[in-house]
Design a protein that fits this description.
23 strands; Neuraminidase; four-stranded antiparallel beta sheet; WD40; Biopolymer transporter Tol; 6-blade_b-propeller_TolB-like; mainly beta; 290 residues
Length: 290
């Protein structure tokens, strides 16, 4: 069973503009939804809830289920094909699936069971041909293990480790030029102090984009490459937990010009995947006030 709302808690879906205040689109006291995407036609936001996907009109309205076909229950890591023809999801069985026209096809192969390898999808290239994901893997008795960045074709093909993998890492997404943005603890002096990074398509020469006392996750480049949206956790946060006070922030793609867009009670689920509108003027996020 997935997350549920606590008594007295709401899930609230917001849309914010680059230069405008957040606007409430939809709220629920019964459905805990997470991780909005924006559809290619600009009309809907797609969120996960109860092991499936739902679309909510940007101008307001009730959630409508998205037909995924015969796919296991999913988590909150999902991306939409840029041309709107398919949705790619991470399922609770640890695999990636392509869902189109109500038919689901598994993309990933079983790894060695002793490694307990699992796939968590975060990015798709501008041409729709390549996926970026985090692969988690047990190392000996270490349950935390490795969390590395990989790419793979959006169809048949094999996984490719991006550079050194930058473990512990999460949230890899493609910029319009093919660069990959992600968060990592690779430069941290203490556990959990994730910051934002960018690396070229070849995985070489990573550049650190943020360097502050906060814990920064899930960099989302706008389609035109002009901005990054991300979630900033309080100093000392380990991982990306739910139900904490976080900041939704914007900055330039080089990490400069950081500014706060909203302060919300959220974290996990607020903005795990790219939620920019196709025209790069707006993005979506979720809060969970009590």
């Amino acid at each position: 069973m997935g997350r549920v709302l606590a008594p007295g808690q709401r899930a609230e879906l917001y849309v914010a503009g680059v230069d405008t205040r957040p606007r409430l689109v939809f709220a629920s006291t019964t459905m805990l939804f997470e991780a909005p995407n924006w559809t290619a036609d600009g009309r809907y936001l797609v969120v996960n809830a109860d092991g499936g996907l739902y679309r909510i009109p940007v101008d307001g309205g009730e959630p409508e289920p998205v037909e995924l076909g015969d796919v296991p229950p999913i988590n909150n890591d999902h991306v939409l094909a840029p041309d709107g023809t398919a949705v790619y999801v991470s399922a609770e069985d640890g695999h990636l699936y392509r869902c189109a026209d109500g038919v689901a096809a598994r993309l990933t192969d079983d790894q060695a069971p002793a490694r307990a390898f699992r796939y968590y999808l975060h990015g798709i290239s501008a041409d729709g041909g390549t996926l970026a994901f985090v692969g988690t893997e047990r190392v000996g008795a270490d349950a935390g293990g490795l969390r590395r960045v990989f790419t793979r074709p959006a169809g048949p093909g094999t996984d490719t480790l991006l550079g050194s993998g930058f473990s512990p890492a999460d949230g890899p997404e493609f910029g319009p030029d093919g660069s990959v943005y992600f968060n990592s603890e690779r430069g941290a002096d203490v556990p959990g102090h994730a910051q934002l990074y960018r690396v070229g398509p070849d995985g070489r020469h990573p550049v650190r984009l943020t360097d502050d006392e906060r814990v920064n996750w899930f960099p989302h480049p706008s389609p035109d490459g002009s901005h990054l949206a991300y979630v900033s956790f309080p100093p000392g946060t380990l991982g990306h937990p739910e139900n904490v006070d976080v900041l939704v922030r914007l900055c330039r793609p080089d990490g400069t010009g950081i500014r706060d867009v909203a302060a919300v009670f959220g974290g996990q689920g607020t903005m795990n995947v790219n939620s920019w509108s196709p025209d790069s003027t707006r993005f979506a996020f979720v809060g969970y006030p009590t």
